[in-house]
Amino acid sequence: MNPFTTHEGKVAGLNRANVDTDQIIPKQFLKRIERSGFGQFAFFDWRYNRDGSLNPDFELNQPHNEGTSILVSHENFGCGSSREHAPWALLDYGYKVVVAPSFADIFYQNCLKNGIVPIPLTVEETEYLLEESNNADYTCTVDLEQQTIYDNKGFKAAFDIDSHWKKMLINGWDEIDHTLLLEEKISAFEESR
How far apart are CA 150 and CA 171, in angstroms? Predict the structure, then answer.
């Protein structure tokens, strides 16, 4: 994973509650074994019409949402099945941060394990970001070390994150990288057996 300390990016609003993992990455695209290439299928049933054309009514298809890297949505984001493909699809689509008032627990953990920073904010803070996301080129900065998200209009909010996962994200470590930090001790243990 890439280290994450701070990130400034354009903000996209997905003004929906209970966005489930089958909408984030529909089941028919789960046949791949790589972690990459899922972005083209993210939100497939919402992004495309039946004839394969882009759905102009879908929020993320709006021109001002092109090139966004921070996604803001409503309560219970990532509910549904535990498929790890959902954060893979979001990351491959370009999102490094997801903001919502609440997340499904397994989805939240899968984001952390794959390098996406999930930020739980209050409903009021989320509503502010959703409203501002309608403005072209609206950006926010996420400072993981300070655990804050802010814009250049005076908005600033603090968020909680487990210290273990904060360290993992800042260093760009996945669980295998973290285990390999103990390689000398593991080797010494194996040699003593």
Answer: 22
- Model pTM? 0.92
Q: Which residue has the tokens 């997801």?
A: 98
At residue 31 the predicted structure's pLDDT band, cuts being 50, 70 and 90, is confident
The answer to whether residue 182 scores a pLDDT higher than 80 is no
Check: CB of residue 104 under 8 Å from CB of residue 77: yes
CA distance 44 to 25: 7
Give the C-alpha distances (Å, rounded to integers) separating 118 from 58, 76, 95, 152, 180: 22, 12, 10, 21, 25
Residue 143 CA to residue 70 CA, distance in Å, equals 13
Band the pLDDT of 124: cuts 50, 70, 90: very high
Would you say the C-alpha torsion 32, 36, 38, 42 has a positive or negative sign?
A: positive
CA 181, CA 27: separation in Å to the nearest integer?
36
Helix runs in the chain, H state only: 21-24, 44-47, 85-93, 105-113, 123-132, 163-171, 175-180, 183-191
Alpha carbon distances (Å) from 144 to 55, 128, 190: 34, 20, 37
Strand 156-158 and strand 148-150: pairing?
Answer: antiparallel
- For the residues 155-165, what does the mean pLDDT come to? 97
